[in-house]
Design goal:
mainly beta; single chain; 9 strands; 1 helix; 61% strand; 215 residues; eight-stranded antiparallel beta barrel
């Protein structure tokens, strides 16, 4: 009987050992593999090529001075206009994260000292560069185009140059709000009431509040 007991004991020990080995292999198979991952650092930009903004502006405009190039009297003179209103719709397309191009259509009106109203509709193409600091954006741009002008029965279509600077706060992914300062250089060439050739450079300063929709 004793040899049989030892034999049964030996078989029992073998069965227990085999069970432990199988359980250990099963646990090792369920453990996730130990893989070394090399993480690549990626820094996204706020703007990418193809991003666009649609801008809506409203504010005030200040006629500053008119410069008469010829004939005498030559020099700067008062514009004989008072503060008026300005509004604009514009579109920007980003070529890089900072450089953009676009177009603008605006409307300007300002009363004269004689009680009349001067109207101007500037339009043109714009190029600009935008600096970004956290959620603040500072665009600088230059627009070249034309300006349809009218005063009483007089009509004039001339050239316009508009440098502009702004400061914006990125409210959300879709919207940013800010202020723009735009200087308008508006040359006029023509004859006065006495038939004398005049070359006049009008200067206007516009301060507007702008909402930009990003898409």
């Amino acid at each position: 009987m004793q040899p049989r007991i030892w034999s049964l004991t030996f078989v029992f020990v073998l069965i227990i050992s085999a069970s432990n080995l199988c359980a250990q292999d099963e646990r090792e198979d369920n453990d996730p593999p130990n893989i070394d991952v090399d993480w690549v650092t990626f820094e996204s930009t706020l703007y990418n090529r193809g991003d666009k903004t649609f801008n809506m502006s409203v504010g005030v405009i200040f006629p500053t001075f008119f410069y008469f190039a010829d004939p005498i009297p030559e020099g700067s003179q008062s514009s004989n206009m008072s503060m008026g209103g300005a509004g604009a719709l514009s579109f920007n397309y980003f070529l890089t994260s900072n450089l953009f191009i676009g177009g603008e259509l605006a409307a300007i009106f300002t009363p004269t000292l004689g009680g009349n109203m001067f109207f101007m509709i500037p339009f043109g193409a714009r190029i600009g560069y935008q600096f970004i600091l956290n959620r603040f954006e500072f665009p600088l741009s230059l627009m070249l185009g034309g300006a349809r002008q009218s005063l009483l029965e007089q009509r004039y279509l001339g050239f316009i140059i508009q440098p502009s600077a702004g400061a914006f706060w990125r409210f959300s992914q879709d919207w940013s709000f800010g202020l723009n300062a735009t200087w308008s250089l508006v040359p006029q060439n023509g004859l006065d009431e006495e038939g004398i050739k005049r070359t006049v450079l009008g200067n206007f300063l516009a301060l507007t509040f702008t909402a930009r929709f990003h898409f």
